[in-house]
Amino acid sequence: MTPRQLLHSLSLADPSLRASCAAVYGSSPELLDHACSRLWILARHYADTFNYDDHVVVVRAPGRVNLIGEHTDYNGLPVLPMAIPRDVIVMASRSDDDLVHVSNVDPAFPPRQFKIEPLIPPFPPGDWGNYVKSAVQGLINHWQTTQGISGLRMAISGNVPVASGLSSSAAFTIACALAVLTVHQRSIPPLLFAELMAHSDHYVGMASGGMDQATSILARAGACLKIDFFPLRVQPVSLPPDTTVVVCQSRVKAAKAANAREEYNRRVVECRLATALLHAASPRSDRVPLRLSEWLAWDCDGLDDALARINATLHPEPYRLPELSRLLHQNPETILSTLCATPAGTPCHEPPDGFHLLKRARHVISETRRVEDAFSILSSTPPDAARRFGELMNQSHVSCRDDYHISCPELEDLVTAARDAGAYGARLTGAGFGGCTVNLVPSPLVPHFVDALNRSYYVPRQLDHLPDNIFVFQPAPGAGVLLS
Ligand code: GLA
Known about the structure:
Blueprint: H1 3-11, H2 15-25, H3 29-49, E1 57-68, E2 80-94, E3 99-104, E4 112-115, H4 129-143, E5 152-158, H5 168-183, H6 190-197, H7 211-218, E6 224-228, E7 233-237, E8 243-249, H8 259-281, H9 292-299, H10 302-313, H11 321-328, H12 332-337, H13 357-380, H14 385-402, H15 409-420, E9 425-429, E10 436-442, H16 446-458, E11 470-473, E12 480-483
Parallel strand pairs: 3-5
Antiparallel strand pairs: 1-2, 1-12, 2-5, 3-4, 6-7, 8-10, 8-11, 9-10
Helix pairs in contact: 1-3, 2-3, 4-5, 5-7, 6-7, 8-13, 10-13, 13-14, 15-16
Bound molecules: alpha-D-galactopyranose.
């Protein structure tokens, strides 16, 4: 289909087009009109920027909200997220050069262009075009060649709030990668696609795990997913009956490109240092674990034993390089260039307040227990499933705040307000340092909940005029092709 034909079909409210949209966005007239008007704007933008008569494909990839399992993924330990009905849509076609031309309908993201080559040099740090580059680079790495990959024209439209902990960047990267695949009539099995996109954030200097990309690709409508890593596997499971997921924006920007990225990468390094110390203190296996998941599998008898070892081995005071050097029998330079070099390639210097290893390891292992418990509650749905799941969410928040130090005063106010308004559970979600909270709310209470949060959080801060403060989300389907 060409943009011209698509605009024509949209103007006639073509039933087959509306049916494709309904399969993704739901069949209520309001949702369908919204989806069609986004497509209309995208097709107009494509046509005005590039050409009315290109044969185009249209693909989409959603953002996600994590219900429980925070900062466990890069430790190889499980998470329990769901995709959200907010996504990035890409309209794309082949170009006759070897350049990728990208244009976003939102003028805040100026047009970008880059050459397809084996090692694509990044734009300056923080440039949005790097998320497109990371997608293309991920595919080139997979195919180990640029042969057969032609240039592309891509028009992009996204409605996942940026820097809010809802994975706008993963939605972006996955949609762009899917556009490249679809334009070239190639495909990669979903699990493999998720695995190879897992490290796309490393291109932008974030040592992130893989939850966001896996959720965006593998999500199922109406379900959340338990995701395990190494090897990657997913198990869909339903939310407790009569509950609704409500997400609230704190309006504190958790920009990955800025210092939140350093704080995030520091947590990754702290977990690696903790893994090294725990293994050095009582090795059971000859294999040297690189992640807490490996230490757990090779050196421990389950989660209780792991927690006991953490409490017995690590001290609460922050660790400094000389002590690490002594305990690990490595000189400080080696530690800095190995354990402290994040998988994203960015070095992590010793923080002024030292490395907090006991708290970080304790959070990751206790959070793993909460994910396992949450999954078993959701799988067996006892009568009090919602209350028990909510309680685990609350405990997760406390651990994220007190042991992982990723909360902030605004997130604290939001979770307090949510519990006061009747949520079963409320917690920060995503990397933290701002962004959103996720709340499990009794479905009949949702209108009251939204109103109460508005009155207690947004009105006093004069934020209530902003759109998108509070979202009521049904679990959305994963990435896919809308038109090919
Ligand atoms: C970010 C990362 C994920 C994950 C979360 C924290 O969203 O991209 O990989 O680590 O933070 O759970």
